[in-house]
């Protein structure tokens, strides 16, 4: 079977991009051919799949998306495949991998009347309607129940088109792959002692992920705790504004923005606490990556995977609407060795007893059936 996958942008450190690549590799491992259409590709290109960078240029992202879709459909007319899978919303898909929130819900609840008159809104609404709208053939792979509720609210989508996927945490993130020496070596390389608290935040798009909130919470700690606490940030985004914030708050020497990394597992192995105070997050795969690694978590309720933290009793969930004061209080409460030890044990138990890993396999089943 020939399968075409569409993704606007690939870069190595995005959650959607990692899911895309693992699903593609699962399809290939089952003996099928994969062709990938992208607008841009950062990083090494796998040799086991055909990658086509679509030559589109436009002044706006929504015009690029329209030209991308038209180019792909013309190419597919001349070079047909058995399945067309989109990792972004667009017309004519056989299967859609739904990593994004319902755009129309966001437009109606967070944007004003005049925003809904813009060309950007009309494009995004139309592409969403032509993906999830009632009467279409597209199978909808979703990763949180909330997506189904919101899509049906706005588009009356049929029940039978939805396929709820389990999480897809990479096996190398599980705590059983970490050794005590690995933890000690990483912490030693970072200059951390046994009494130091190592906090990690993982994810690109720093504003949406709430990095400013984490820096402010760190700065709010009492000096006796703050002097033994370091925040390491892994993700691809511009760091200058956040480094300036840290300097203004007097914690420049406590905040380390390291960019996108290929050794995230090492930081999970070494960390004491994971924070993810996101402003919006359809899932938050990194929450479960931390949990699988045995790292306690503080996350916002808006994250689609926040409920796992409550179920596992492996950390704290910040309620909506977000309160910086609550986050500050939670962070200070969490930096206690006894509490962290209990949360660590709970996270490891959850990682051992729940299916947090089979998303690529289940997605491949749906695409190929």
Please list the strands of the largest sheet in the order they lie side by side. Answer: 3-2-1-4-5-6-7
Decide which structural class fits the backbone. Answer: alpha/beta
Assigned CATH class of the largest domain: Alpha Beta
Rg, Cα atoms, Å = 21 Å
Uncertain residue segments:
none
Q: What is the subunit organization of this protein? A: single chain
CATH topology of the largest domain: Rossmann fold
List the domain count as a whole number: 2
CATH superfamily of the largest domain: Glycogen Phosphorylase B
What's the architecture of the largest domain, going by CATH?
3-Layer(aba) Sandwich
Q: Given the C-alpha coordinates, what overall shape results? A: globular
Provide the helix percentage.
Answer: 40-55%
N-C termini distance: 11 Å
Mean pLDDT: 96
Strand content: 15-25%
SS summary, helix count: 16
What is the string of helix and strand elements? EHEEHEEHHEHEHEHHHEHEHEHEHEHHH
Number of strands: 13
The major pleated sheet works out as: 7 strands, parallel
Characterise the protein shown here.
The chain has helices at residues 15-29, 61-78, 103-110, 119-132, 145-155, 180-189, 206-209, 211-220, 223-226, 240-248, 264-270, 285-292, 306-312, 324-334, 337-353, 359-368, and strands at residues 2-10, 33-41, 50-53, 83-86, 95-98, 139-142, 162-164, 197-202, 229-234, 255-259, 273-276, 297-300, 315-318. By secondary structure, it is of the alpha/beta class. The protein has two domains: 2-168 and 358-368, Glycogen Phosphorylase B (Rossmann fold), CATH 3.40.50; 171-353, Glycogen Phosphorylase B (Rossmann fold, 3-Layer(aba) Sandwich), CATH 3.40.50. α5 links the parallel β6 (139-142) and β7. α2 (61-78) runs parallel beside α4 (119-132) and α6 crosses α11. It starts with a strand and ends with a helix.
């Amino acid at each position: 079977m020939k399968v075409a996958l569409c993704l606007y942008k690939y870069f190595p450190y995005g959650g959607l991009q990692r899911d895309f690549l693992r699903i593609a590799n699962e399809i290939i491992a089952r003996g099928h051919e994969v062709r990938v259409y992208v607008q841009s590709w950062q990083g090494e290109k796998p040799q086991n799949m055909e990658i086509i960078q679509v030559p589109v240029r436009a002044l706006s992202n929504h015009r690029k998306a329209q030209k991308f879709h038209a180019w792909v459909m013309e190419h597919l007319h001349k070079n047909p495949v058995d399945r067309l899978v989109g990792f972004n919303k667009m017309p004519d898909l056989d299967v859609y991998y739904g990593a994004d929130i319902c755009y129309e819900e966001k437009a109606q609840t967070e944007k004003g009347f005049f925003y809904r008159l813009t060309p950007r809104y009309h494009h995004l609404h139309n592409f969403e309607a032509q993906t999830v709208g009632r009467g279409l053939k597209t199978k909808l792979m979703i990763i949180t129940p909330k997506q189904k509720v919101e899509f049906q609210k706005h588009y009356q989508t049929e029940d039978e088109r939805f396929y709820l996927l389990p999480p897809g945490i990479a096996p190398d993130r599980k705590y059983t792959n970490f050794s005590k020496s690995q933890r000690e070596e990483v912490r030693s390389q970072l200059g951390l002692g046994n009494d130091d608290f190592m906090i990690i935040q993982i994810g690109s798009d720093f504003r949406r992920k709430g990095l400013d909130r984490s820096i402010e919470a760190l700065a709010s700690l009492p000096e006796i705790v703050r002097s033994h606490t370091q925040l390491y940030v892994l993700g691809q985004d511009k760091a200058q504004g956040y480094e300036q914030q840290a300097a203004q708050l007097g914690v420049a020497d406590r905040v380390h923005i390291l960019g996108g990394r290929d050794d995230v597992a090492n930081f999970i192995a070494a960390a004491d606490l994971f924070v993810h105070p996101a402003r919006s997050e359809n899932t938050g795969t990194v929450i479960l990556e931390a949990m699988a690694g045995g790292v306690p978590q503080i996350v916002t309720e808006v994250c689609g995977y926040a409920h796992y933290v409550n179920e596992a009793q492996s950390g704290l969930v910040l309620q909506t609407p977000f309160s910086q004061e609550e986050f500050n209080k939670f962070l200070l409460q969490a930096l206690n060795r006894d509490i962290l030890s209990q949360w660590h044990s709970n996270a490891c138990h959850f990682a051992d007893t729940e299916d947090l890993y089979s998303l690529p396999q289940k997605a491949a089943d749906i695409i190929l059936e």
